[in-house]
Amino acid sequence: MTHRPIQAVLRTSLVTACVACIAAGTLMPAAAGAGKSAATKNSPETALHRIQRAVARIDAEAKTPEGEAAVLKRLSGQLAASEDSLKQQHEVWGLGYGEIAMAYGFAKANRKGKTPADVVAMRADGEGWLDIAKSLGVKVDQVANRMNRHVASPRLR
């Protein structure tokens, strides 16, 4: 099966996107003005980092059987997808639940009728998240705000 290569491409692309964001953040302040940070709260780089932190928190929570059950229940209600379909996507796509939530976030925010499977295919083809957002007409900050809803509140754990 081709589950692992897709997962490897997605994770490699995610790391590449992080490196690009870090590089952009270190190169832009001189052009933006002395003493000012290039990344603002609404910049794509900052929003992408917020998404990545949410993905990591969701995946960390899902590492135990109890955590996985809680994540599935929460995501099922929030993404309007059955727990069984989310678990199947987790197995077939070879992605963590955080990455699945991210694919759903980009799919929901797009205006081109793309599904979460379409978004995963775009990533597997090597497109970066910022490129996907641009081609779908999605604001990364909008997806970042939605992703934070998918993370369990520390008080509920």
Would you kindly provide a written description of the structure presented here, covering whatever features stand out?
The chain is mainly α and 157 residues long. It has one domain (3-17, 42-152). The protein has nine helices and no strands.
Rg from C-alpha positions? 16 Å
Query: How many individual helices?
Result: 9
Q: Give the number of DSSP strands.
A: 0
* Main sheet properties: none
| Structural shape | globular
Strand content bin: under 5%
* Helix and strand pattern: HHHHHHHHH
Overall residue-averaged pLDDT value? 78
Distance between the termini: 36 Å
Quaternary state reads single chain
Helix content: over 70%
The number of domains: 1
Structural category is mainly alpha
Low-confidence stretches: 15-39
Task: Jot down its keywords.
157 residues; mainly alpha
Helix and strand layout, with pairings?
Blueprint lengths: L2 H25 L1 H4 L11 H18 L3 H15 L3 H11 L3 H13 L6 H9 L4 H8 L3 H10 L8
What's this model, at a glance?
The chain is mostly helical.
